[in-house]
Structures are given as structure tokens and as C-alpha cells.
Amino acid sequence: MTSGTAAPDLRTELLELARATAEEAAALVGAGRTSAADQVDTKSSPVDVVTAVDRASEELIVRRLTEARPGDGVLGEEGASRAGTSGVRWVVDPIDGTVNFLYGVPAYAVSIAAEVDGTTEAGVVLNVATGELFTAVRGGGAWLTAPGAAAQRLHGSAATSLDQTLVATGFGYRAEQRRAQGAVVAELLPQVRDIRRVGSAALDLCAAAAGRVDAYYELNLNPWDHAAGALVAAEAGLVVTGTEGRPFAEPMAVAVAPGVAEEFISLLEGLHAGS
Asked: Could you read off the pLDDT of 79-91 as tens digits, one per residue?
């Protein structure tokens, strides 16, 4: 991640708009949980689902952002695509963890990030089910605000031993992807503490930032999956990168505690080279 060029006051403005918008969208999503199964479509595969609530959340988010800042661009998971003139682009996931939302598993989030000239400068991930709010601005640290509690700064994990590393990951939607990813996990599992599969890339990245896992990796994420969460992880002090010297999420996304980063990344490279 390169250092950004946005002025501090712009970063603060973008963060506050993202926060207020995410809170409004989360209220809409929460109210729609009981009827989540009423209108469900599929996208890339029969298990890649989208609900009417996803679409309504994205519409609300885009409307609020563009009303407040008409010159900004937008990229959203459910089709929002708007070129801007200001140099700012919002990257939006209206519900990250839609399958969890559909089933009532309490791990689904509104994720909103603001890019300035291509660099993510502010990000918000709000877990709708728990009310936990993860925020970051570039150079300002990562923070968690839980309901009824003061904001706390996040510092990630202090893990130093690979065999004691708790690892989060996620899987693609196509059967052939899952088969290959499952084979990698089978090789990885005996070499680490354990594996966690939450079902939301944004929340996995924030869990790593909060030290709830020591490392996270996943292949083939889209920008809306990771834009906000990756900034939270980076600002919490994690190593946020790709493998084999490539950028984050091109195609591998890795967020890992510094004390195990070199060994963990090397292990991933070896496992995926043989997959």
C-alpha cells in the first residue's frame, strides 16, 4: 500500500460520511433480515446469492454519498458504477456476507471505502448483527467502536510462531475453485493452530486487525470485498500484501501479523505452487 495524498481534513470528511452512511444502511439491512429469503437471486454460481436487501442497501448508500459529494465516483458490488470528477471514488459492499445474512449467522457487514486518486484513504466496516464498527484513515490508525464502549485502537496480533497461528480464510463460489482451495487448506491445517471460516472478507480483515486471528488469506477477492477492511488491517500494523512480490489481492490477499509474516507467506506460496 502506497502512502496517500489526501489532506487530513479530507480524510476526516470522507470517514465521517462513510460512517454515517454505513449506520443508515445497517439499519435498513437489520430491518430486512426477517424477510431476507423472500427475494433471492444468484450471480456467478447457484451458491453466490444476492437479496433484495443487498440492492436496497446499495441504492441507499450510493444516494447518500452522491447527494453529499456529487462529483465523486462509485463502484458497488451490486452494479453501481459511476465515474467521478473529484478524484474520489467510493467502493461499496452493501452486505458483505450475504449468505450469513440469509441464514441469520451474525457476521455480515456494510463496507464503505473512499479512494483518493486510486489510494484508499478512509474505510468503515460495520457488522450489522453485532453493531461493531471498524474504522481507519490512512496514517491515523485503526479503531473499533463496540456498542456501549469507548473506541479502542487496534494493533493486530503479536504472534511469533507459525504453529500457533490462527488463520482465517474464505472460498470462491465455483465448485472447481473450492476443490482446489480445500486441497490447500488440507495441507495448511497441520502446520498452523487452526482455521476459521467466517464468510465475510471484510470482517476477516477486521478480525485480523483486532487480533482475533493471527493471519488471513484469500484468493480472487473483488475491490468491494477488501477496500475498507484492508485499510483497517494495514493501519493496525499488519503486513498487508500479496504473494510472490505481487500487490494485495492480485490475486492473493494476505493480512498477517508481522512476527509470522515471512514464514506464513512462504508457506502459502509453496502450497499454491503445488495446487
From this structure: 989 999 999 999 9
Element at 81 (helix H, strand E): strand 81-82
CB-based contact 44:173 (threshold 8 Å): yes
Cell of 74: 462509485
Q: What letter would DSSP give residue 246?
A: P
- What's the confidence (pLDDT) of residue 47? 65
Question: pLDDT tens across 117-176, in order?
Answer: 999 999 999 999 999 999 999 999 999 999 999 999 999 999 999 999 999 999 988 899
Cβ proximity of 209 and 134 under 8 Å: yes
Going by C-beta distance under 8 Å and a sequence separation of 6 or more, which residues neighbour residue 186? none
CA 45 distance to own-chain centroid:
21
Spatial CA neighbour of 25 closest among 54, 68, 66, 46? 54
Which stretches within 32-69 are classed as H helix?
A: 52-68
Strands 215-219 and 239-241: unpaired
Contact 142, 35 (CB under 8 A): no
Cell numbers for 188, please give them: 495448511
